[in-house]
Write a structure and sequence with these properties.
mainly beta, 3-stranded mixed β-sheet, 3 helices, about 5% helix, rod-shaped
Length: about 200
């Protein structure tokens, strides 16, 4: 044995706790039990491992994260998942722009029962969302970006009046067809255009 080199010795396929190894410690040759080598991943006798088990120190996996068996499903609260896509029994998450998808709010730009109205592409609410039987205004401000419309009982939208680009008030086509009624001194009268192009008021 004393005349053999280490490379000439038979290789061991495993290390048992009771196996002895020779070490040099502080200039003194000593022996060490295999159990001390085998259990180098222990702290106070507790082993470390990336696999969850009882009485085990947790090690990070190949992605430098704790194993899913320990963290569980990280995007859940009380068993409910989180998602940016509107889904039942799911926690809503804002999209890349920082806002929730419309589906979370049950909102739509198209007038629909049991829905929350939102502005359409033009930034305004569809007037069909609004049902007015009486409208009281202390003042009415018009801008020449579009006409004021009225919808008749048949649901047809009529162009009543608007401001043109010169800020002139233009009466819509309903005046020419004698469908514009106004209150003059407490009496309802129908406005129309005669053959000479003059506007006239006729009692109903």
């Amino acid at each position: 044995m004393a005349n053999k080199e280490i490379s000439d010795l038979t290789a061991a396929s495993s290390l048992a706790d009771a196996d002895l190894l020779v070490i040099e410690q502080g200039g003194v040759t000593k022996k060490i039990a295999g159990s001390l080598i085998k259990n180098a991943d222990t702290v106070d006798g507790i082993h470390a491992a990336a696999t969850a088990a009882a009485n085990i120190l947790l090690a990070l996996n190949a992605s430098s994260k704790l194993p899913a068996s320990i963290t569980g499903d990280a995007d859940t609260v009380d068993g409910k998942h989180a998602s940016a896509t509107p889904t039942g029994a799911t926690i809503p998450v804002s999209e890349a722009g920082g806002t929730l998808a419309n589906g979370w709010l049950n909102a739509t730009a198209t007038p629909t029962a049991s829905k929350i109205p939102i502005a359409g592409a033009g930034g305004t609410i569809d007037p069909s969302w609004l049902l007015l039987t009486t409208l009281l205004l202390s003042s009415l401000q018009l801008v020449n970006t579009g006409p004021i419309f009225c919808k008749n009982y048949a649901g047809v939208i009529k162009n009543m009046f608007y401001l043109n680009t010169s800020d002139e008030l233009i009466i819509g086509t309903d005046l020419a067809t004698s469908k514009l009624i106004v209150n003059i001194d407490g009496e309802l009268k129908r406005l129309s255009v005669d053959g000479s192009g003059f506007v006239k008021a006729t009692a109903l």
